[in-house]
Each structure stands twice: as C-alpha cells, then as structure tokens.
Amino acid sequence: MRIDNVAPMNGVSMASASTVPRLTMTLYIDARSYTIRGLDLDESTGSNAATRVLSERVTRFDTVPLASLPADTFSLHAPANAQEPPSPAPGATAAQPPETTGALANILAQSDQPALLLSGDVAGLRFQGGGVMRVPGVAITSYNYGPDLQGPDTTGGPVAADGIGSSIPTARSFNIQINHASALDNNGRVPGASTTRGARPLTVTIAGQPVQAMYWALETNTPSLRELSYQQGTSWITMSSQGLSKEEFFAALGALVDGHRRPDIAARTQYELALWYDEVTTTAAASVGLYRG
After folding, report:
1. DSSP for 82-146?
2. Is the same domain home to 46 and 151?
3. Which 3 state secondary structure label does DSSP give 54?
4. 191 domain-assigned
5. Of 61, 77, 244, 270, which has the fewest beta carbons less than 10 angstroms from its beta carbon?
C-alpha cells in the first residue's frame, strides 16, 4: 500500500492510500464537518507519471431534519419480481448449501472472468473477503485469503493463528487481483498491466488451464514476498503472497478452481467468510482498523 502526502483542504492534511496496486485514491475531508468533499483517482504504470482517471467534487451538501424527507427516502425499491426466501421452520436444517452473499456474490457476478477460489486446506488459509471496483474501461476484482484470526495458546490466551502473537494476521496472506479490461491496448496488452522487475517466465496450471506467467520472489524479506502474474484474454491476473513458503505458494496456485463451475467450493467459501466476520466481531478486531471487504 503506497502512502502519498497531498495538499491540505480546509485545514486538514490528508493521506491517500492505494486501493489496488498502481491506483491511488485521494479523499478530501472537511475540517469542520468531517464530510467527504472530493475524490481523485490516479493511475500510474511503472515510472510513468500518474494519470487522473476520476475526479469528483461535492457541489452541494445540506443537513435537513429527518421529518422533512419524503416518506419513501429509505425504502428498498426492490424489483417487482424480487422474492423473499421463506424462513426455515424452527429446528429445521437447510437442505441446500448456503447462498453466496455480499462480497462473494459480487465476485461471482463477474461472469466474464474466472472466479478463482481456493479448494482444500492450503497452509491454513481462509477466505477473508474481496470485492469489485470499476474504473473507466477496467473492472478490478480482488480476493483476500489469510489464516484464522486467532487460536488459544497453551495458557488459554488468544494468539494469531500464524503465531506472530498479534490478533491481526498480517504475516501470512494470499491475494488475487484480476484486472478485466473492456479492450486491449494497441500492443495487445491489458491497460496498466505490469510485472515486478526481476520476474522470470514460468509455465503453471491455474484452475485446470496452463498459462505462461511471470514469477517473482523476495526470500530475504521478512515475511517473504511472492508474486505470479499473467494475461488471460482481456484480463491481467496477479497472485501475491506474504509469509508463505515457495511450496505453500505453489500449493495455493494448484488448489485454485473456478467458482462458477464449482458451486460446492463457492458455498464453502461463503461459510469461511461468515466465520471470519464472526471472529472479527467476537475479538473486536474492527476497533483496531482490521477490514476485509
């Protein structure tokens, strides 16, 4: 995550955090009301200068009494054909796998790209969320995997499942990002696609498909870093890890399946996400800034 200093607005000096690699979002916040007044989204590739891809400003903001709002302001306005699923009888057991909702449902809705999900138990990794972000011409889908939030140690106290003694499992992670473009550039590449300097070519099989990829690793770093990237159609796919050994990283690559074709894996992934949210709530990890979309 890259942090850049930006000019203060109304007395508040803000920092911008990249929401995805090579994309930097800058939010401008009012110093008095703490409301968002503007947003800039910049894209940079390699050493090239950043290009502004989105800029929005709030031109009017009013605070009004709740009673003055129209009666249907907070109505759902669901489609006419929307149906509410029936509630199970008390004590009944659901016969179908859990429905995909929230972050996972948004990911699976991207039918024009594979939904790369981990199958099996690989290095204790569990799905912790993801999401879909759109910028002009590109849909960016992300998947985040990490260890269980906590587990009891020999004295009964909570420690991180990765053993680093913290309730935030930042030392071990596996992430996937798919940049799906509406069209390739003049060089036949996905706009903004790049590889880390020093990466070497490698042929691997991802979700049953052999691909020509670029692999990079930094073993001397603590925790170690790894990255594999490749182009598939109009998508640029990057898989990265932190704290995983080479064997664990490639085991994760080999365990990937397309969730569109494996509803059983999608259902299990939804269950993992539900467990993650329960752990975050139970341990109050959200109070220290932990978030998985």
Report:
1. --PPPPPPTT---SSPPPP-HHHHHHHT-TTS--EEE-S--TT-EEEEEEEEEETTEEEEEEEEE
2. no
3. strand
4. yes
5. 77
Q: Provide the 10 A C-beta neighbour count for residue 61.
A: 10
What is the CA angle 126-129-130, rounded to 5?
130
Q: Which of 50-54, 205-209, 257-261 has the lowest mean pLDDT?
A: 50-54
Query: pLDDT per residue over 172-215, tens digit each?
Result: 889 999 999 989 988 888 988 888 889 999 999 999 999 999 99
Q: How far apart are CA 146 and CA 151, in angstroms?
A: 14
What is the side-by-side order of every strand in the sheet holding 225-232?
126-135, 138-146, 173-181, 235-242, 225-232, 209-218, 200-206
Spell 208-239 as b/e; 16+ CB within 10 A means b: eeebebbbbbeeeeeebbbbbbbbbebbbbbb
pLDDT in tens, 19-39: 334 677 888 887 777 778 888
Closest by Cα among 134, 103, 105, 111 to 258: 111
Both 119 and 255 in a single domain?
A: yes
* DSSP element (H, E) containing 286: none
Q: What is the pLDDT at residue 164?
A: 35
Find the angle CA(280)-CA(259)-CA(248) to the nearest 5 degrees: 65
Domain that residue 14 falls in: 3-57
Spatial separation of the C-alpha atoms in residues 124 and 161, rounded to whole Å: 8
pTM score of the predicted model: 0.58
* pLDDT over 70 (residue 53): yes
Distance CA 36, CA 123 (A): 40
Domain count, the chain: 2
Q: Are residues 50 and 147 in the same domain?
A: no
Identify the residue with better confidence: 119 or 43. 119
Residue 165 has a pLDDT of 36
Torsion of CA 174, 176, 177, 181, to 10 degrees: 170
